[in-house]
Amino acid sequence: MNTWMEEKGTPEGTDTLLQSIFAHISDAVMVVDRNGIIVAVNAAMERMSGWSEDELVGNKHLCEVCVGMATCQEEKSCVDCFFKRAQLPSFEMRLKTKDGREYPVAASSTTLPDAPDGKKVMILRDMSMQQRMEKERYQHKLTHFVIQAQEEERKRISRELHDGIGQALYSILVGLNVLSHGKLSGPMKQHVADIQQMTAKAMEEAKRMALELRPSALDDLGLLPALRSLIKRVEKSFGLTVDLHVHGGWSRHSAAVETALYRIVQEAMTNTAKYAQARALGIVFEEREKELVVTVVDDGTGFDVEQAERNGSGLGLFGMKERAQLLGGSFDIRSVIGEGTTVIVRIPRPKEEAKDGHTRLDR
């Protein structure tokens, strides 16, 4: 590094400053000669590549650390290499490290005008963290749209079940009632009664499915009334005792918040009813100054959370966690085999609500 600085013939004082910048800059710096041989690197380049300065300088060719540059036409190419250009202010290349890994770096290169042998300086910035964050941001956004589309589809199907199929079945049932009061023979009268019973059951099933898909009370009355209705159905269907407690009052919140909390509690209740062999379940709502906290506790058999996630049987847990995180909140589940399960959801309260009562997530 010092030799290269001396060759530059920089004024006294400037030389020391340049050496300090070269040594301490966070971006990796690499100098190569006209043949592509590395002639100087800084400490950041050593850390990024895994090779020491002695291993790189004079011993490595540029192509041994560069796997290819990304262009608009190709993901990775050596056809139009930056090395053929006098200056390229911005491009992406993939750096190959000593241990064989490859990861993206943002790069720029320029030929030193004062260097008689055409030395080229390259500056590299690690992009792996930025790309990972961008990927997570994209996945987060995609998950939001998927959940939003799912809820809209649930609402549509629920409405069609209630207003379409439900009303049609009701009309059939009315017609059968009229028919049953006519002059029918004994066998025919019994046949009509059987069809009446089947139609009534079908109507009840359509109503149940509509409620499961999207309870109208959630949109019309809010989260707590919708949950109270759900609790009654769960208690009736599974013989489970459910206690709902509300601390600190509970006001209406945005559709996104109420829908997410309803689905999380619904999933927790369903899991408890179907798999936990529990006798009782408690739900606690707390409306605090800066956050909403919902806790669901059961006295069931419990399970191994990590094992469920590894085996892929924790998709319901993943969905609950995603819904909480989409609202900037957290989802925590604690379970011990033989000691029950506790689910804790925390959702930060928005600083300000839009005029229509929806947060940005609803728009």
From TrEMBL:
<keyword id="KW-0902">Two-component regulatory system</keyword>
<dbReference type="InterPro" id="IPR017203">
    <property type="entry name" value="Sig_transdc_His_kinase_NreB"/>
</dbReference>
<feature type="domain" description="Histidine kinase">
    <location>
        <begin position="261"/>
        <end position="351"/>
    </location>
</feature>
<keyword id="KW-0808">Transferase</keyword>
<dbReference type="InterPro" id="IPR036890">
    <property type="entry name" value="HATPase_C_sf"/>
</dbReference>
<dbReference type="InterPro" id="IPR000014">
    <property type="entry name" value="PAS"/>
</dbReference>
<feature type="binding site">
    <location>
        <position position="78"/>
    </location>
    <ligand>
        <name>[4Fe-4S] cluster</name>
    </ligand>
</feature>
<feature type="domain" description="PAS">
    <location>
        <begin position="14"/>
        <end position="65"/>
    </location>
</feature>
<keyword id="KW-0004">4Fe-4S</keyword>
<dbReference type="GO" id="GO:0000155">
    <property type="term" value="F:phosphorelay sensor kinase activity"/>
</dbReference>
<feature type="modified residue" description="Phosphohistidine; by autocatalysis">
    <location>
        <position position="162"/>
    </location>
</feature>
<keyword id="KW-0408">Iron</keyword>
<keyword id="KW-0963">Cytoplasm</keyword>
<comment type="function">
    <text>Member of the two-component regulatory system NreB/NreC involved in the control of dissimilatory nitrate/nitrite reduction in response to oxygen. NreB functions as a direct oxygen sensor histidine kinase which is autophosphorylated, in the absence of oxygen, probably at the conserved histidine residue, and transfers its phosphate group probably to a conserved aspartate residue of NreC. NreB/NreC activates the expression of the nitrate (narGHJI) and nitrite (nir) reductase operons, as well as the putative nitrate transporter gene narT.</text>
</comment>
<dbReference type="Pfam" id="PF02518">
    <property type="entry name" value="HATPase_c"/>
</dbReference>
<dbReference type="InterPro" id="IPR003594">
    <property type="entry name" value="HATPase_dom"/>
</dbReference>
<dbReference type="InterPro" id="IPR011712">
    <property type="entry name" value="Sig_transdc_His_kin_sub3_dim/P"/>
</dbReference>
<keyword id="KW-0411">Iron-sulfur</keyword>
<keyword id="KW-0067">ATP-binding</keyword>
<dbReference type="GO" id="GO:0016020">
    <property type="term" value="C:membrane"/>
</dbReference>
<keyword id="KW-0418">Kinase</keyword>
<dbReference type="GO" id="GO:0005524">
    <property type="term" value="F:ATP binding"/>
</dbReference>
<dbReference type="GO" id="GO:0005506">
    <property type="term" value="F:iron ion binding"/>
</dbReference>
<feature type="binding site">
    <location>
        <position position="66"/>
    </location>
    <ligand>
        <name>[4Fe-4S] cluster</name>
    </ligand>
</feature>
<dbReference type="Pfam" id="PF13426">
    <property type="entry name" value="PAS_9"/>
</dbReference>
<dbReference type="InterPro" id="IPR050482">
    <property type="entry name" value="Sensor_HK_TwoCompSys"/>
</dbReference>
<dbReference type="InterPro" id="IPR004358">
    <property type="entry name" value="Sig_transdc_His_kin-like_C"/>
</dbReference>
<dbReference type="InterPro" id="IPR005467">
    <property type="entry name" value="His_kinase_dom"/>
</dbReference>
<dbReference type="Pfam" id="PF07730">
    <property type="entry name" value="HisKA_3"/>
</dbReference>
<keyword id="KW-0479">Metal-binding</keyword>
<feature type="binding site">
    <location>
        <position position="63"/>
    </location>
    <ligand>
        <name>[4Fe-4S] cluster</name>
    </ligand>
</feature>
<dbReference type="GO" id="GO:0005737">
    <property type="term" value="C:cytoplasm"/>
</dbReference>
<keyword id="KW-0597">Phosphoprotein</keyword>
<feature type="binding site">
    <location>
        <position position="81"/>
    </location>
    <ligand>
        <name>[4Fe-4S] cluster</name>
    </ligand>
</feature>
<dbReference type="GO" id="GO:0051539">
    <property type="term" value="F:4 iron, 4 sulfur cluster binding"/>
</dbReference>
<keyword id="KW-0547">Nucleotide-binding</keyword>
<dbReference type="InterPro" id="IPR035965">
    <property type="entry name" value="PAS-like_dom_sf"/>
</dbReference>
<dbReference type="GO" id="GO:0046983">
    <property type="term" value="F:protein dimerization activity"/>
</dbReference>
<protein>
    <recommendedName>
        <fullName>Sensor histidine kinase</fullName>
        <ecNumber>2.7.13.3</ecNumber>
    </recommendedName>
</protein>
